[in-house]
Amino acid sequence: TEFNWKLSDEIELEESFFHRHEEPLSVEEIDQLLTDINRNLVYVLANIYIHDTYYAKFKMLCYCINALMNGREEEAGLFLSSYLSSRSHNSYSSIEMNLKNAKKEILACGTLRTKNHYKEMTLYDFIKTNQYLGSFEMREDVQNYIRMALHESRKIDIESVSLFWTMYYQRKDYSLLTIGAALYSLECRGYVTKLECIELIHRIQGISEKEKRFPLYVFIEQYEPDIIIPYIISNCEASDLIIDWFLLPVEYINFLTKEVITDELDDLMHYNRSNKEIDIEKLKYVLRSKWKSVVERVLNKSKYIIRAVEEHPLIDEIKDSRLTLKLYPEEENYKSKEGEVRGSSSAFDRGELTTDNKHLIVEKNMRPQDVASFSDGWHSVLADTDLFDVFEPKEVKDSFKEILYNALLSKFNSVDAFNAVHYLPGNIVKMIHDYEVDTDFNKIVDSFLVYLEFSMFPLTIKKLN
Questions:
Q1: Beta-sheet strand order (sheet of 277-279)
Q2: What's the pLDDT tens digit per position in 381-423?
């Protein structure tokens, strides 16, 4: 089977790992290896450094790896770029990745001529020192650490590997999407400041590869726009924040400064500079804001075109403006799932409740705990806490345990599988705060802090009575 084949291949690689660099490569061997440069460049660079060899024919590679291992990364990149250019194989991304992987292989072999953290740190300290890398980046590092310890028959604190298993996984970990909602609740009760919340979200966004802008949207939209936007502008460097400002609701955009608007517009035009066309979805809120005339003037002067489907609701509002429009028919294949099914009773029958079919909650005489068992159409529960707004707050408060129970045990209607609970860590804290659920909120905060600690995003709070 494919699994057995991959397992066998990995075992063979592990068994031969420390034999790969037993001898220095000859010029002829390097020549042969570099016929497949994508596959073998890292191996060649590591071998040159490990055996401290110099080859006149490959002097740029020798200069490159020695510069890299002596902390001169920029210089190393220039040497490697020069070599790759001579072979008509030049790519900045490949340069950066090859340098990174070459350094990792040298460290993993235990041959670094200076300090090697694989040898000098406990596994606990090693993981904590690199906690902001995320588990996707750390997987290979932890494997290298354990492999070297086994190779040297060195006792390590292997139990500390548990820290790695619970780290934030930046590629497919959606469990911190609604952290902004929880942080808002903590800020309202005085445990943290707004700035501390924003800084934590920024750290998470800094390593995330999926939905990285969403947590900051969630946090901002918990507040009234006249409170949160001026606060951010005054206390943060707006251009450093990871957010598409134009995707905020109109009332929030209205409180942005002209500088933020023009900077965001510059970024948007730069991203679309190849064809000078911007999709109307990127501008639909700002074109309804007080900054509409600024956007029109800049886009018109720069000769940018707004691309939109013929039936887009904003067309009538801007057709007489100075903007140049490029309309196209909406293809059947691109019609949104929301427009086709989410607002219908068929979506309800599939176990989906969203803003579009929220009216069915009242029509079908549902209870809060019934709503909790429905998904958002992407098989996630408690994704939108606004669905509970149709109930009296006391009704939600009194049934909160049942809400949690039904959400955790909710399943797809079509198959025997549980719905995802990505939104629970943030939204549970928010609901307990919003509905003043009868519980010791300090214990809720302690539990949330443990969750953040597991994810390797520790947060220091003020102790309250």
A1: 277-279, 305-309, 324-328
A2: 999 999 999 999 999 999 999 999 999 999 887 778 899 998 9
Instruction: Measure Cα distances from 147 to 44, 108, 426 in Å.
Output: 21, 8, 37
**CA–CA gap between residue 250 and residue 257 (Å, rounded):** 13
> Residue 327 forms beta bridges with which residues?
308
User: Percentage of residues in the chain with pLDDT exceeding 90?
Assistant: 67
Report residue 262 as tokens. 């023009």
Has residue 119 got a pLDDT over 90?
Answer: no
Could you tell me which of 209, 230, 207 has the C-alpha nearest to residue 220?
230
DSSP state of 279: E
Residue 133 has pLDDT above 90, yes or no: no
pLDDT mean over 125-129: 94
The length of the chain is 465
What digits encode the pLDDT tens for the residues 337-375?
444 444 456 888 888 999 888 999 999 999 999 999 999
pLDDT of 315 reads 87
Q: Which residue has the tokens 């679309």?
A: 272
State pLDDT tens for residues 34-76: 988 888 999 999 999 999 999 999 999 999 999 999 999 999 9
Residue 325: in which H helix or E strand, if any?
A: strand 324-328
Q: What DSSP character marks residue 353? A: -
CA terminus-to-terminus distance, the chain: 59
DSSP 8-state symbol, 249: -
For the residues of 13-74, what is the DSSP string, one character each? HHHHGGGTTSSPPPHHHHHHHGGGHHHHHHHHHHHHHHTT---GGGHHHHHHHHHHHTT-HH
Pair 242, 202: CB distance under 8 Å? yes
Please report how the helices 37-50 and 92-109 are oriented relative to each other, as an axis angle in degrees rounded to 10. 40
| Nearest residue to 325 via CA among 339, 314, 336 | 314
Element holding 162 (H helix, E strand): helix 162-165
Own/partner pairs for 368-373, CB < 8 Å, 24+ apart?
368/395, 368/396, 368/399, 368/402, 368/403, 369/399, 369/402, 369/403, 369/405, 369/406, 370/406, 371/403, 372/402, 372/403, 372/404, 372/406, 372/407, 372/410, 373/406, 373/407, 373/409, 373/410
